[in-house]
Amino acid sequence: SGFVGISIDLSHIGTLMAAIFGGPLAGFLTGFIAGVLPGVWYGYVIGGAGVLALLCLPIGKALTGATVGFLNRAFRVPSRTRGRSMLTLASTLLGYIPEMLFTILYFKLLMPLYVGALVGDVIMFGIIAKAWVEMVLIGLFMASLVGNQGFLGVVEKYFAPGWSTAVKSSKS
Q1: Are 56 and 39 contacting, i.e. CB atoms less than 8 angstroms apart?
Q2: How far is 37 from 43, CA to CA, in rounded Å?
Q3: With 52 labelled, which of 71, 77, 108, 145 sits at a CA distance of 20 to 30 A?
């Protein structure tokens, strides 16, 4: 359970796996899908934002997925044999910034219509603080995955052949 509808959310594990191993589009689509259930939950079940939450939560999560995917490619993480884990952690943390900014806009511009500005600010700060803790934990988890040769072998064989260069060159 959570305080004023704030609860632990590790749905970005799937989003980031898709973004890191599948790229920006896979991250975007997975993030969007991962945001639908929270959109229903906070929009209708325990919250009162309705369609606003149903639309905005998937968009925010999709922003993180796409951004992490772009950053992972920009940092050339798959082709590196050294520093891959640290760059994955960096892309995870930097990749959350667009969603954080979107969340701020959501709570500053739209949520006051439903809960008032003060209540919205309290909820917003709680959500953003919690999200940074979650992103650090998820980032560390993702960093450990991209540093694990056994895991990368499975990913390369069944899901993301683009990782083959990094997997093979790091074994030599």
Answers
A1: yes
A2: 10
A3: 71
pTM: 0.86
Tell which residue, 12, 169, 172, 163, has the closest CA to residue 73.
Answer: 163
- Helix, strand, coil shares of the chain, percent, nearest 5, are 85, 0, 15
Query: Residue 101 corresponds to which tokens in the numbers above?
Result: 């900014």
Tell me 111's DSSP state: T
Q: What is the pLDDT of residues 89-102, one digit of tens each?
A: 999 999 999 999 99
90 exposure class (CB count in 10 Å sphere: 0-12, 13-18, 19+)? middle
Q: What is the DSSP letter of 44?
A: I
Which sign does the torsion angle of CA 36, 58, 124, 86 carry?
Answer: positive
Determine what percent of the chain is predicted with pLDDT higher than 90.
58
pLDDT (tens digit per residue) in 112-170: 887 778 888 998 999 999 999 999 999 999 999 998 888 888 888 888 776 645 444 44
